[in-house]
Design a protein that fits this description.
It is globular, with a radius of gyration of 21 Å. The relative contact order is 0.15. A 7-stranded parallel beta sheet has the order 8-7-6-9-10-11-12, with helices on both faces. It has 2 domains: 113 residues, 3-Layer(aba) Sandwich (Rossmann fold), CATH 3.40.50.720; 190 residues, Rossmann fold. It has 12 helices and 12 strands. The chain is an alpha/beta fold.
């Protein structure tokens, strides 16, 4: 069996594939493989281990050929994959929703939440700039997290892991919005199901945990920001286009919300989509930015590597995929 790995990944998954004696074509550069080369190297492959910045569409699937059986996407999301095109060609698509990933992204989400509330990034910059001249009662005042209301848009695995930390660790009240109610989630965390509009009105922190779909693109835009408390914060560790960047910039400029923390961006890898409007996310002191690193721990990335490899092995062995994308 021939497997293309489009970028170096942690070694656990690669070793599993090597033990099966698969012919592995690993793109050695730690960068997105150029499209032309990706199309060329996909030819004749039985499996492709793709990353979230690889566009897996009809062109790539056809370039690989009719023997292609599986695209194992090294990500929890799979908005980079044309699922209908894959299904039409009988190609199975899988993702990597490892438990370690949920816990890691939840940790990062909460780190961003705490950074906003306690103005950690601002304080760090202030100290590094040698502006600190002594303690003062009004210096860089933040806000408490304890007892506040956390609004989760998306109550899946990652949302639940965030709720676990919020409710059990900080006695936060939890409200959530999703396409359907989750009784187990409600019982575990005392969470209250609300329509998204009401959630935005009552939450002190709004955290996004939804996949990128046509229905969730610009899910948070001008109308949604207008519903939020002026003291509320937005955290996005989901996908960049879930938030309308221009609307967010306007909300920050007009102090419609208290701040935002983003691990993902609408025009990623660019931090700002439009520099001509003279509004940049990085210019706001109440915005915390991380470069899509919510799952960037050794444990989580090794688990993703293992999940991708195990899906490849299962499908190429004639078995059912372990975590098919749906």
């Amino acid at each position: 069996m021939k497997v293309l790995i489009t970028r170096p990944i942690p070694d656990e998954g690669i070793e599993l594939l090597r033990k099966k004696n698969y012919q592995i074509d690993l793109y050695e550069k730690d960068e997105v493989m150029p499209r032309k080369e990706l199309l060329k190297r996909a030819k004749g492959m039985d499996g492709i281990l793709s990353l979230l910045n690889d566009k897996v569409d009809a062109e790539l699937l056809d370039a690989a050929g009719p023997q292609l059986k599986i695209v194992a996407n090294y990500a929890v999301g799979f908005d980079n994959v044309d699922l209908p095109a894959a299904k039409k060609r009988n190609v199975i698509v899988t993702n990597t929703p490892a438990p370690e990933v949920s816990e890691t992204v939840a940790e990062h989400t909460f780190a961003l939440l705490m950074a906003l509330a306690h103005r950690v990034v601002e304080s760090d910059g202030y100290a590094r700039a040698k502006k600190y001249k002594g303690w003062g009662p009004n210096l860089l005042l933040g806000t408490d997290v304890y007892g506040k209301t956390l609004g989760l848009i998306g109550g899946g695995r990652i949302g639940a892991a965030v709720a676990d930390r919020a409710v059990k660790g900080f006695k936060m009240k939890c409200v959530y919005s999703d396409i359907k109610r989750n009784g187990d989630f409600e019982r575990a965390y005392g969470a209250k199901f609300l329509p998204m509009e009401k959630l935005l009105q009552v939450s002190d922190f709004v955290s996004l945990h939804v996949p990128l779909l046509p229905s969730t693109r610009h899910l948070i835009s001008t109308a949604e920001f207008s519903l939020m408390k002026k003291t509320a914060f937005l955290i996005n560790t989901a996908r960049g286009p879930v938030v309308d960047e221009k609307a967010l910039l306007r909300a920050l400029k007009t102090k419609r919300i208290a701040g935002a923390a983003l691990d993902v961006f609408e025009c990623e890898p660019e931090i700002d989509c439009d520099l001509t409007d003279k509004l940049e996310l990085k210019s706001f002191p109440n915005v915390v930015l991380t470069p899509h690193t919510a799952s960037a721990t050794i444990e989580a990335r090794q688990a993703m590597s293992r999940f991708a490899a195990e899906n490849l092995i299962a499908v190429l062995s004639g078995k059912a995929a372990l975590t098919p994308a749906k």
